[in-house]
Automatic annotation (TrEMBL):
Domain annotation F-BAR: ranges: 1-157
SUPFAM superfamilies, per the entry: BAR/IMD domain-like
Species this chain originates from: Sus scrofa (Pig)
Domain of life assignment: Eukaryota
UniProt entry keywords in alphabetical sequence: Coiled coil
Protein name: F-BAR domain-containing protein
PANTHER family per the UniProt record, alphabetical: SLIT-ROBO RHO GTPASE ACTIVATING PROTEIN (PTHR14166)
Classification via InterPro entries: AH/BAR_dom_sf, F_BAR_dom, SLIT-ROBO_RhoGAP
Amino acid sequence: CVILNEVMKTYHMYHAESISAESKLKEAEKQEEKQIGRSGDPVFHIRLEERHQRRSSVKKIEKMKEKRQAKYSENKLKSIKARNEYLLTLEATNASVFKYYIHDLSDLIDCCDLGYHASLNRALRTYLSAEYNLETSRHEGLDIIENAVDNLEPRSDKQRFMEMYPAAFCPPMKFEFQSHMGDEVSNCAQQPVQAELMLRYQQLQSRLATLKIENEEVKKTTEATLQTIQDMVTIEDYDVSECFQHSRSTESVKSTVSETYLSKPSIAKRRANQQETEQFYFMVRLLLPQPLLGLGSGVPKRCFWSCIGITWGSLLKSRLLSTL
């Protein structure tokens, strides 16, 4: 927005200078016409000095007109270039804002809550397995909890979360072109502005092609890493029926769990590998060319996403409790 404002001010300044130069040129043309009209009067009764003075005045006016004509052409060219730069910046800004609210916010939320639903699903299923083996008379309550776990859906929860806070996640209105003193957007670019625009277009096309190739490579890496993480967080290891094969007492369950489940070396190794993979995935996602324009609220990014995480967890918790 700062860059857009600066480009707009530059365009308005050059356009004002162009209008001023045009008015001065018209004034010089009027003076020239007036002087020519005087010189056309009968000269038989005019003295030689007056004739010479009139010729000198005509030459001065012609020189002044030429200077103002050159100044007007220069300012007009600057105004056209500044207007085109303003239009390009305006379109790029609107495209960046649209991409941020439509695509980037969703991707950032996916990065922040990656594995959350799978971890919650596994934790609750572990609880369900223990309860089913402890007390069969509680099947009705456990079935309700199991139904709530089965209804956990990342996409719908994310959509519901974003709909609850439209001020933060809905794109604002597009920036509109603000014409200056009757200037029109429909004016066609002239030489040498047209050649400069074509060169600019070719450079942008070349840069976009390079970025597309780089983005595809990074995308392949992120997809492979994401699949690895999803495989890690969706392991069906919530069945603890082996803990209840000998005794159903609470102390026996605690002892069996500590000896056979939580103390497995593979769990610590798996968690370390998962954390390392998650850190790599998040860093790779940051390499993607995403032109974020800032949060716009003056709140630091870390604090902003921490608040989102707290609200996100509260939303899922309230949904689960309402189901129960």
